[in-house]
Amino acid sequence: MDIEEQNVDNSPELQPREDADHFLGLQDLISFKNTFIDTNRGKPLYLVRVEELQGIELLAFVERFREFIARSDTLCEMEYAFHFIDKERCLLTGFSPIRTIDGSTFPNMDNAIGRFHERSLREEACSFNFGIARTQCNYISSIDEIFEVLDQSARQNLKDNLVRWSWTIFNKANSYFSTNADEAVIQPTVYFDEKAQIFSVKGGEVFVGGSTYEGYQDLINDIPADQDMDRIELLILEKLIIACQNAPGVLKFNISPQTLLDTFRIHERVVRFNRLLHANGLDPQRITLELVEKSYEESNEKGLKDVCEDFFQYGITFAADDFGVKSQSHQVILTLGQMIKEFKLDPISFKFKPDEDKTKFLDNMAFIAYCKRLADNREANITAEAVEDLETLNFLLEHKIKQYQAFIFCRKMPINEYRIRFGQMQGLPHSIVQQILGNAELRQVQLDTGNIFTTAIEAGLWSMT
Question: What is the Cα–Cα distance from 215 to 207, expressed in whole angstroms?
């Protein structure tokens, strides 16, 4: 069908605005179809449908979109055109590659538009819903036929996105607790009693999803920026507490400072959190909220210190994750003061020897001394994470670092197993730990077993009393 023979919808709501020439390239429907479809025969075509645009004027949004296109590695290689449907308050954008591309590879438009969507929300510039359609079949069909297929597909994709964003993330989070996989795992924390010269499990850090813990990372990474991340974190926190019913020792739960601020700014929620702990046989004084290394913004309503004080009055304390020389956790520690009862360090940077890098070695020695002073002032613990070898362990023991979360002692285990075995993982002599980690054969057994207390028993080196 020739262009002149098309049945174009000339209803008033689809007519171009009178100031279209000044509207950053917005075209009437006929021009849009010609520019977008007819001049790009043989190339992949993409139609992006934007609805429910809020927080910004259309002209400003188009300008913002054009700037993003120019900076995007994917979109800057595309030709594009705009059309605005006034009645539906809908912006259509047609994309096609500038050059002919291999038919087996297509630009990742979903990812590119998703980044624009995420950035707009994160920067609080605007909000909108979007749907994307694609077709490669455009040699034979008429312009109207191609447009109709793309338009219907973009509308459907937009509806699918709304459903996906609204429900699948929550369903995905719940799925970790509705399968046969363990509901939670714990990375045990091993404490060295210098006076008694023994190692014992003190508690541990709790994670979601049991043997499918890696899936938790996928869950978090898949959450669109416009979703209620605080709600997801709260859901996970609630599920973990329930999974840890009557678990012994000190239990640590990850939470971002921003979630803490946004979710618990209302004091009644802290009260309900405390009740939830008691209902599951957990002593609040054995609960630590580990503040992960993420930036946050305080409001005038209630600051991080104010929210944390609400928890602290029930005996709940806090830990600073990834505490280091360049860490943002320094500000959290200064803000919360005595409420911080644990600093978590990565000892990998302490492996420098004086003869390898004297400056780095001295810097690390000074930092360890600094951490110890902070810990002593706050009656807090220093926990070394990811200790991988006997040499590092001995170095930390020499400098009075007595608490460890490390696979050379114990790897993650299901909470159910932890409940049963907690009483058995106590009082392992320092000499036996040295013997196991210092012997290549026993060290391999320990790697296979994943629990140094079990290794000591099975090797006939130790028996529980």
Answer: 11
CATH assignment of 3-170? 3.30.70
Tens-digit pLDDT profile for residues 132-163: 998 877 777 888 988 998 999 999 999 888 86
Q: Which CATH number fits domain 176-426: 1.10.3720.10, 3.40.50.720, 3.20.20.450, 3.40.718.10?
A: 3.20.20.450
- pLDDT tens sequence across 95-125: 988 876 554 556 788 888 988 988 888 888 8
pLDDT digits (tens, 9 = 90+) for 30-70: 999 988 888 888 788 899 999 989 889 998 999 999 999 98
How much is the pTM? 0.61
